[in-house]
Amino acid sequence: MTPAPARTPTRFAPDRQWAERASAPLRLLSGPRARPTPAEVAALAAGLLRRDEPAAALARAVREDRTVSMRQVHDALAHGVPDGADVPAPLRAFLDAVRVRPAWVDDALLARGARACRAFGADAGVVLAYGSLLGGYRTAAALEPLARTGRLTGAEALRRIAETTTWWRAVTAPGGLAEGAEGHRLALHVRVMHGFVNHQLEQDPTWDWAERGVPINQYDQASTLGVFSTSFLLHLRLLGVRVSRADARAVMHLWSYVGWLMGVDEDWLPHTERRGRRLLYHFLSHDPPPDQNSRTLARALVHMTDGIGLPAWRARYERERALSAGTWLLGPAAMRDLGLPLRVPWYGVARVASNLWWSHLVGRLPGGRERLAAHGERVFERQVARWGTDGAVPGPAA
Fold first, then answer.
1. Choosing a second label site near 302 at 20 to 30 A (CA), which of 19, 137, 138, 342?
2. Contact call for residues 124 and 229 (beta carbons, < 8 A)
3. What is the pTM for the complete model shown?
4. Does residue 393 register a pLDDT over 50?
């Protein structure tokens, strides 16, 4: 495996003016002393040169040393490994690294966080697509590995959403993060796949180490975790969803554990919303501006339902809804950065009005949380069916 260069990659903070403008809302939401210290800036730069070493060691054992087979990896992730079983040392080391949960993990908080995520219903799907993912495309930071796969346009955009939906639904299912459960297995599956992608790109002579550092690095992994946790909660509130302090704390706890399972450094796990906002501000304020990959991915996401056989009026509605939701959630500057046309934010206004009833009224009544959860589950399932994204091979979109 090619070693990372010693110098900070040039993609780190290349356009301070753009980065400060793009990250200004997060800085305001992060409270006093939001700006990173010199030590924190140095840690951010170093994160571009650090990989997930347990996954990297497993990838080397499979691809180079041939001491572990892919069948052994798949079987171990799918069924676990009994104590005392004869398992190759690199695979055993990887499994041991994730078997003992950190002392801070709280099962009650995991359960509440999962229930809260599912209760957000179709709003969760819209936020993940047109807030979290579309917003993540605004910076070119983590997109090159995805571009190398060729999965940028056409049906691949919907497939990426399908994979992300499958993974998200698994990790937020009741008991989904218990050892051996589907969410736990898929989190580890994605971690291993990241290790293989890293191994492949690090052997590619065309990979620009001086510009980009490690292909899938700790900086980008932690920033992506913030998209699914901190950014997710901020955008839900923009749709009028009531997110209580207790639910927000539980959601952040859930995603901190997911991040730990997927190999994010302990130092960059968000744990709380305030910490998550500050971390996300640090990342965005040192990210590069959008590039052509950003604009290609953004357009593909808006047009992702064009080729699935919807009636013409419905396909147009989905595109217009995407643009309206993006304008409401991300703002005009982000949409311009992504090369997308602005729309009147009718969708956001409609969701705020609806959530005044469902989230703020029904959710506060006796038994309201249960009714809200059941309603959320129904509308999310209808949306999944409408997008045709059920039952895909799992993995979060970049």
1. 19
2. no
3. 0.92
4. no
